[in-house]
Amino acid sequence: MKSLFQPIFVFLHDLRRNNNHEWFEAHRPEYDRARALFEDFIQGLIFRFDAALPLGDLAAKDAIFRIGSDMRFAKNKPPYKSHFSAVLAPGGRHSLRLPYCIHIMPGGSLLAGGAHMPTSIDLRGRSPDDPGAISSVLTSPWLQTL
Prior knowledge:
The protein is mostly helical and 146 residues long. The protein has helices spanning 6-17, 21-26, 28-52, 60-63, 120-123, 134-138, 141-144; strands at 84-88, 100-104, 110-113.
């Protein structure tokens, strides 16, 4: 079975080898296709996560980070990230709540959870040994077949 992620991985692999503005613009249709596939995947995750962890009216476009690198404070940094990433939490990528982060790239993707500076209210009643309802999403056949 061809993976949903294959066009994404092919684009990101090629981008890593040719990380410059001219190449990116010449391959924008491949980027648009890869981004659309990733956006569809994230929208599916939002739908499934929302049953276990209410995400409000979160849309994939609000969860996904841009592909352009932040060039302000780095010397000789590539202009584009060689991965796609998103945050699943109310408020999307701007959330300070306990988010789930997904990072897709050739050779190493991950789904992680955590928070920067959580409040005592955020931590109350949560145990790393008891993931709660979210475990049903992470072990679902839909996610396992990707």
